From TrEMBL:
Protein's recorded name: Alpha-hydroxy-acid oxidizing protein
Region of interest called Disordered, as start-end residue ranges on this chain: 71-92
BP term (GO), one: aerobic respiration
Cofactor: FMN
Domain of life assignment: Bacteria
Keywords: Flavoprotein, FMN, Oxidoreductase
Coiled coil, from the record: none
Record GO cellular component, one term: plasma membrane
Length: 92
């Protein structure tokens, strides 16, 4: 499940892409609510299969990276973001 994977690698929020649009086109607000219900069920199922009892329990230990990624530099821990100066505080 993509939602579980995103949360496990540290996402604070997950986009549901076009799914809500399909639900809206099919049945309006009720369709969107149905899509959200389906996605919630899929997340619950994935968490149950992983043995995660809550969303905060999902972490990187639940994600396996293909062996090929390890030697190719494609898998690395996130780096801290660099500080960005506010526009009013730019230095010459």
């Amino acid at each position: 499940d993509d939602i579980a994977k995103a949360l496990a690698v540290g996402a604070d929020l997950v986009s549901i892409g076009r799914a809500w649009g399909y639900g809206n086109a099919a049945a309006g607000e009720k369709g969107v609510l149905r899509v959200l219900d389906i996605l919630d069920g899929e997340l619950s199922l994935a968490m149950g299969q992983l043995g995660a009892t809550s969303v905060p329990a999902l972490d990187r230990s639940f994600v396996e990276y293909p062996e090929a990624w390890h030697g190719a530099g494609m898998h690395r821990e996130p780096e801290p973001a660099e500080a960005v100066e506010a526009p009013g505080e730019l230095t010459p």
